[in-house]
Design a protein that fits this description.
Elements (H helix, E strand, L loop, with lengths): L6 E6 L14 E2 L2 E2 H11 L4 E6 L2 H8 L4 E4 L11 H11 L8 E4 L11 H10 L5 E8 L4 E3 L5 E3 L14 E12 H4 L9 E6 L11 H13 L1 H4 L6
Parallel strand pairs: 1-4, 1-6, 4-5, 7-11
Antiparallel strand pairs: 2-3, 6-10, 7-10, 8-9
Length: 234
């Protein structure tokens, strides 16, 4: 496998969260939520791990695990700040920036990751000509949109069809993102050729934005404890 010295894992964790206050430090199974992304990076044997935050408490806690931290400027810590702008700032200020050609984004809001997720995605990414690789879940719902006349218009099925006849579709689940550093420097996180890793287990349903998401994540963590317990084991 390609040398991990050239890979930078970035964990973006801003202080402010409108729908779930202090989300990234909220206790999840007795650990701050951000703990699970840090541990996933460490257990995946990543050598370059960087937490980007505008919160001193998050930075102090993260630093206790021996990972690198960077204080994010205020203009990159608003609700309108793009992920790619945060990644670009992280890449430009990282101490070993000249070594990095791949950036892996690990959102703290996705605490449930299988132990082999990184290896599977990394192997697929480096053995392809993808500009990026994202994890996706399989959609099994009949989806549509409501137009300006308040009418429902399906877009992944035909009205009256059976659920098993749905057109196959997928959604970003936020578990992991691989990007080329050269594209991030150009303010482009994903590029044009976006590869995928399909996630079929319960972790695909978890992306914590509000309290209901948080409760669902806890429920799935306990349900699949044998799969995710490696994150809290020494």
């Amino acid at each position: 496998m390609k040398n991990l010295d050239s890979v930078l894992a970035v964990i973006p964790a801003k202080k402010r969260s409108t729908r779930l206050p202090n989300k990234n430090l909220k206790l999840f199974n007795n650990y701050p939520l951000i703990y699970f992304s840090i541990q996933f990076a460490l257990k995946s044997k990543l050598k370059n791990i960087l937490v980007s935050s505008d919160c001193d408490n998050i930075l102090s806690y993260s630093k206790s695990f021996g990972v690198d931290v960077i204080k994010r400027p205020d203009d990159l810590s608003t609700d309108l700040s793009s992920t790619v702008s945060v990644l670009k700032h992280s890449l430009e200020t990282y101490r070993n920036k000249n070594k990095i050609d791949t950036v892996v984004t690990l959102q703290p809001t996705s605490p449930l990751r299988s132990h082999d997720l990184f290896d599977k995605c990394f192997k697929k990414f480096i053995n392809s000509n993808f500009d990026s690789l994202i994890s996706v879940g399989i959609n099994r719902k009949k989806l549509g949109h409501i137009d300006e006349k308040d009418l429902f218009l399906p877009f992944n099925y035909e009205l009256g069809s059976r659920s098993q006849d749905l057109k196959k579709s997928f959604y970003e689940n936020g578990l992991i993102y691989f990007s080329k550093a050269e594209n991030i420097k150009k303010n482009d996180m994903l590029g044009k050729k976006i590869g995928t890793q399909i996630i079929k287990d319960d972790s695909s349903f978890v992306d914590i934005d509000d309290l209901d998401d948080f409760k669902l994540a806890l429920l799935l963590f306990k349900k699949n404890y044998s799969e995710f317990k490696y994150l809290i084991e020494n």
